[in-house]
């Protein structure tokens, strides 16, 4: 028969492991609560995270379509002004004066 003296270390071990588990569980709950509070605080400032983890910043007072249109307009203007000597292949620029709307030059015949 096992004496009560042999069970005391097992009881102490279970109490220590149980106490550590309780503390870890409370930290898990606290971190989840802190995450939700931070998300609510950031949403008030119009900042959020996407499902992929990227940061999404909204602009107050501008709908998404207008914001996207202005952003694309700025990118197109920067692209056009960065390389003014390069002409697009599609021939959409109104400043092109070539007949037929084609920007390609004829190749010399090699026969």
Structure description:
This protein has one domain. 54% of the residues lie in helices and 5% in strands. The protein has helices spanning 4-44, 64-82; strands at 47-49, 55-57. Strands 1-2 form a two-stranded antiparallel ribbon. The chain is elongated, with a radius of gyration of 34 Å. 0% of the residues are buried.
Mean of residue pLDDT?
78
Question: Number of domains in the coordinates?
Answer: 1
Multimeric organization: single chain
Strand neighbour order, sheet with most strands: 1-2
| Poorly predicted runs | none
SSE series: HEEH
N- to C-terminal distance: 110 Å
Helix content estimate: 40-55%
How many strands, what sense, and barrel or not for the largest sheet?
A: 2 strands, antiparallel
Count of extended strands: 2
Shape: elongated
Radius of gyration from CA coordinates: 34 Å
Helical/strand content category: mainly alpha
**Beta-strand content:** 5-15%
Topology at a glance:
Layout lengths: L3 H41 L2 E3 L5 E3 L6 H19 L29
Summary tags:
two-stranded antiparallel sheet; mainly alpha; 5% strand; elongated; 111 residues; single chain
Offer a quick outline of the entry.
The chain has 111 residues and is mainly α.
